[in-house]
Amino acid sequence: xxxxxxxxxxxxxxxxxxxxxxxxxxxxxxxxxxxxxxxxxxxxxxxxxxxxxxxxxxxxxxxxxxxxxxxxxxxxxxxxxxxxxxxxxxxxxxxxxxxxxxxxxxxxxxxxxxxxxxxxxxxxxxxxxxxxxxxxxxxxxxxxxxxxxxxxxxxxxxxxxxxxxxxxxxxxxxxxxxxxxxxxxxxxxxxxxxxxxx
Length: 198
Description:
By secondary structure, the chain is mostly helical. Helix content is 72%, strand content 0%. The protein contains ten helices and no strands. The protein is globular and about 60 Å long.
């Protein structure tokens, strides 16, 4: 068994700088709002040069979209173990998956989520993301176990469910979070699962 490579001092320092810029950006965004924050504000608060900022990030949007990877970390470290403990069929796992998805977005707050729902955010369609592969695996297993229809491919069902859920979240944003995202998400996912359930 090979040991994982230790990061060099230089690599550790680079990661610390990247993380410092990231945390400074989030702090400024929470204090002033994303649109009222400039790269100049970020570099002044972080105490780094313009060149250093652009070494790690392409834009302030790039910093913000890195936040989206936090959802994948959450699904890998929190949701996946809970789904394994659930030990139920694919239908129930999909419902639980989207309950977590809605709750994660609701916890992050309206301003944060509204900013994520931008055409510039290509993380939504990145097929290798953990969340997408996890749902794909649940659907595939459900088809093998004859719980989910084989009239559609696992890819098509996974895409449909994510498009549906993003629509629900977008609607929640334009209604300024005036209703329970979790309850509304579950209503729509339950309805969708009637189509796919055998």
